[in-house]
Design a protein that fits this description.
The protein is mainly β and about 160 residues long. Helices cover about 5% and strands about 50% of the residues. It is globular, with a radius of gyration of 19 Å.
């Protein structure tokens, strides 16, 4: 892969977010972030130097912040409530599409098995916009361009 110096890089304007099965259209997310972790621990034998490592549990979680008006619209079309959505069918797609110079490929990150765990509203005097933050667990997978972030042995 070649490096393109001073070319257009991905920015917030290049991101399209959808929340399935509720909506396949763009919604006004202000922030999205997620973390994933695969626990690992050094295994020791004789001496002070690790002789290997062991893997533990994979876990992932994230946060989505949107305008309050968008949250209320989503809440109206979610029969069981956003915090009760079935994680087996709830997916967040994040599409990165750089339309600048065409050198950056379109990429997609798919977060599957989404279980929203917390909705936080806040309002402060002088606010120009009201936002709602949604914390979520990722119970199934994080796929970057269709490839599992957990690797080939994702079921282990």
């Amino acid at each position: 892969m070649s490096v393109h110096i001073n070319g257009k890089q991905f920015d917030w304007g290049d991101i399209t977010i959808s929340l399935l099965p509720i909506t396949t259209v763009v919604f006004t997310a202000k922030t999205i972030s997620w973390d994933e972790e695969l626990e690992a621990e050094a295994i020791y034998g004789k001496g002070r130097i690790p002789v290997g490592y062991g893997k533990g549990n994979w876990k992932a979680s994230g946060k989505l912040e949107m305008l309050k008006s968008e949250f209320e619209a989503l809440a109206l079309i979610t029969p069981s409530g956003i915090l009760n959505m079935d994680p087996r069918s709830t997916t967040i797609n994040v599409l990165y599409s750089n339309s600048g110079d065409g050198l950056m490929p379109v990429t997609t990150t798919t977060l599957t098995g989404i279980r929203f765990t917390k909705a936080s509203d806040s309002a402060t005097q002088g606010d120009k916009e009201l936002k709602v933050s949604l914390d979520f667990l990722i119970l199934s997978d994080v796929k970057r361009n269709g490839r599992s972030a957990r690797g080939i042995a994702a079921l282990n």
